[in-house]
Amino acid sequence: MNSIFPPHRRPRRLRTSPVMRDFTAETDLNPSRFVLPMFIADGLDAPRDISSLPGVQQHTTDSLLAAVEGAAEAGVKAVDLFGVPLDSDKDADGSCGIAEDGVLNRALSAVRERFGDDVLVIADTCLDEFTDHGHCGVLTVDDRGRTVVENDATLQRYADMAVAQANAGAHVVSPSGMMDGQVQVIREALDDAGHQDVSIMAYSAKYASAFYGPFREAVGSSLQGDRRTYQQDARNLRESILETQLDIDEGADMVMVKPGMPYLDVLREIADMSPVPVATYQVSGEYAMISAAAQNGWIDLEPAIMESLYGLRRAGADIILTYWAVKAARLLKG
Ligand code: PBG
């Protein structure tokens, strides 16, 4: 009988030095596949810190442009913009998210004008930041007297919003509201408006998640209650395949799984079935929890960031949205 001692197979050989480990690494991260989510707020004189997202700010137009420039210098060439309107501009239909002079559309124009095609301008296409009730769509009372988010009426708003964002200069629109049929309606509206080259990054498998907590502070969300009638249930995997397949059939150019870390199995499944690039969003709660542990001295921040990003990449993400995009790009440069 062959003894296992001494072993012929010695996997440790490939771990003997940093150069050898780099040489044999199975997974790479490339900053040109990072997306930096950014917040642009109305009514600010100076950028404002977001307490639950240390290091992330609500921007003025000037500070936004400076931050985009810094990101591009670090190698991050894609930004995803979220608008934070004045509370007094919010209404039941989220009109200020669609208006040409709304905070998000003004920011999209400013960034596109300054950076042209050197930076990919991605727009969050969703109403929740702009509605006074905080839901991702318009509300109606159904025949049992329940207040619900009305799918098809919301679709029309999304179509108008996507066209307004494309007019403002977005290269990519990113519907995140999880309404049925949203990709198809947006694709048709963009095409009708002559925006055939504007692409759609669809939040396809987006879960109703407790990990969005800090984001809601970041955008000054007005939401009471939850989004469980439109975002996915955390217990489901197969459902995300259906959602993603529908989005691809409707014309999504890229699909997304969100959040990241609690859904690595979903990400792997989607990466295996998708014929289009797969993104994942390392959401605010993932950022906040690692940041908070690091601030307490409980974990080492930089290795934890890189491990979290390699995990997403290893699970199949082509594109990663992360508030650490710039920091990670700098760490990768060494
Ligand atoms: C909805 C939207 C949300 C996030 C991105 N787009 C919040 C939600 O669905 O409640 C969360 C992102 C994050 O937590 O970092 N427009």
Automatic annotation (TrEMBL):
Binding positions for Mg(2+) per the UniProt entry: 243
SUPFAM superfamilies: Aldolase
Signal sequence range: none
Pathway where it operates: Porphyrin-containing compound metabolism; protoporphyrin-IX biosynthesis; coproporphyrinogen-III from 5-aminolevulinate: step 1/4
Enzyme superclass (EC): lyase
Domain of life assignment: Bacteria
GO cellular component, one term: cytosol
InterPro entries per the UniProt record, alphabetical: ALAD, ALAD_AS, Aldolase_TIM
Enzyme Commission identifier(s): 4.2.1.24
Residue positions of the active site: 206, 258
Subunit-level organization: Homooctamer.
The protein, known as: Delta-aminolevulinic acid dehydratase
